Amino acid sequence: MKRQDYIGWDAYFMGIALLSAQRSKDDHTQVGACIVNAEKKIVSVGYNGMPRGCSDDELPWEREGEFLATKYPYVCHAELNAILNSNVPLHDCTLYVTLFPCNECAKAIIQSGIRRVVYLSDKYAGTEANTASRTMLNMAGVETEQYLPNGSEITLAL
Asked: CA of 72: how far to CAs of 14, 60, 93, 111, in Å?
């Protein structure tokens, strides 16, 4: 008899995004992303962190203060990292991400050819950056859908 309590594709790929987020060294916001092609194969993953070759011990992680003394001019977002980490075309792919993409990531998503974004949290809904992101994604025909967990839990023991 076939097992009936296996997880669905969206739960599986969002789980990969959540696991990827655990690589982030940001003590406030950990974001993960997983890009999947039409054949349901993972083609890339990413998380928010400093660019390759830039020391995350020397650059700031603060959220407040003078611009150059905060993380904002330095951190590469999970979506952009996943796009840049891919070595295959992303046309018609789906991006699973733990936080709705900002306006800068929306531009990269559109330009890469990703056609669908499944996101977990939308904690910045209503902000100008979020509104700009939604406007561009809608205008470009990128489908967005919030992932709604079904209450099940996946535990990894390492």
From this structure: 25, 9, 28, 22
